[in-house]
Here is the input.
Amino acid sequence: MATRKRSGSGSKRHLKEKVVQIYESFFRGEDLTTDNATFWDEFFLLKPKIPQLEAEIHKLSLEQLMNMKDSMNLLVSQCIEMLGQEHHIRLVYALQTLSALLITMYQRAAQDSNINIKTILIGTDDADSKMQKLFEHCSVILSGDVPDSLKSTVLKLLLVIATGIDNIDENSLVEYFMQNSLFEPLIQLLCTSTERQHHGYDVVMLLMFLVNYKKQESANPYVVKLSILDDELALNGYGQVITAALNDYVMSTFGGMQGGGGGGGWLSSLTSMVGGIFLTSDETQPVVRGQRNSGGEEGMLLALYEAAHLNRNFMTTLAHSSSAAASSAPPSPPATLPPHQSPPNLSQIQALDNEQPTNLLVTFFQYCSIVMADTRSESSINKCSLCFIILTCIVEEQFANSIMHDQNLTFKVQLYRLPMRHRKIVLEEPPSQPLASTLIDLLVEFIMCHLLKKFPGELYQLCVGVLLRLLSYQKRCRVRLARDWRPLWAALIALLKFLVANESTLLRRHNIFIMAQQVVNIFNLFITFGDTFLPTPASYDQLYYELIRMHQVFDNLFYMALRYSTSDGEFKQEALRLANCLVNVRAIIQHFSPKIEAWLASQNLSTPSEDQDFNPNGRE
Here is the structure.
């Protein structure tokens, strides 16, 4: 059968979809509703073509954008009106169109500071009523019996509004979140396991952003409501979302140690859906000196800080035990996992057995052990600093301390240990112990692994502060941890030795006298009150043995403090306080050193060993 060719052309014409033609006509300024009263109802039945819509907006100059202001206001108003309909297709397409408009305008505003997003999109006359109606519709959808995909689309829109500008305090649209609170419908999504599985991550991220909006300048309703929240289901749901996110990071890191890396994780794919606002890496590099590509868990870390800092009731969720494989924990959303990605081979990781009971503290300690291994970049230092601040909030809370020191509540926690030249890392099953012992192990690991030329002094001050608060609780409550304290003492002495050896270099950037005073005060706590929290009298003997064995470190520290305290430099007062703090340690050394030397002479020995029958209490 013969076919006729189109005259004047050897190829087919490219046909544009109807919705694309509408976009082009709309941004040319044509009035599309003149001859069609039902235009908007028909328009929102057409599937949006987001790339084409964004391209049309990017074509416009600033002058053309301002001229299109009324038309853009109309389009946004119609999107908001459609959110009140029961027709789910129109609802979803209106949400997608509005999200695309916001994302594109935020991108234009980032390139040109003269662009006023609020004026162009919602106008000035009835902006408040429009946004009030938008948030009312969002609240109804989030609280209603509607498909999860629709709630998810609403949350994505809200995240786009909240995260459009790098500095959230400069985002004028976020003010409408404050005027029209969505706290209650958002919190309700965390109370049931099915909704938490679908929406938990987005809800917690959104709350985290909103809590940080002008929190120091004005009364933020989200700060107030989060601080007084006492709904146990909601708080447990909030904690489980954070646990799942941090656990994903921990599992992928330990899996990378076994198999050399894998995919970027579901958090990366999940956050990438928010209009490209959250930037994550596509690949996870092998763990080298603790360095790992950043992921969405950073937002969860900040969310954990806000809850731990603001809400005392949240501390009860720290002990909410569950199996890592329990269905109540929010799993990785299956729809967001890339098809090529497979989870890490956890069968090879004995210490991360899914059948082991876990809680938020366990996961957070594991996460900290990974994060604290890398202090080379500013971003990693900031993340490490936030971890220490959260730990400070935890050890200052009486209930959290009672959980960590409960002898009947023990966990096997596998901490990440940094590969170093002087030790080989063998992944073995960790001991079952109270979480306070695990926290001390974590702090010891940090102290020993960062005695470097680029010394992170601020992090060490935070670390020593956490340790001092933990020991103060043990002394105050007479809690005796059945553990070997010698690794901690050795780490603290190594820190003092490093400070003295590098005094001239470190003093250019840090006041090492304050840090040294904190460390010496920890030893003073053991010396003066050790009988209230050390497990056995033998522990006291071990403490005195370490002080006498390493007396040279304390002598050098004292001479350094004496040198600066007798001069008129800027560190005179701090050095004087340090010298005074060393009175107890020096008294012990000066009292026992002659006795030890006499005893060694009588035994014809050069040095004593810890196992020999000597102790500083006179039993020889």
Residues 1-11, 258-294, 323-354, 613-620 have pLDDT under 50 and may be disordered. The longest strand covers residues 410-412. DSSP finds 28 helices and four strands in the chain.
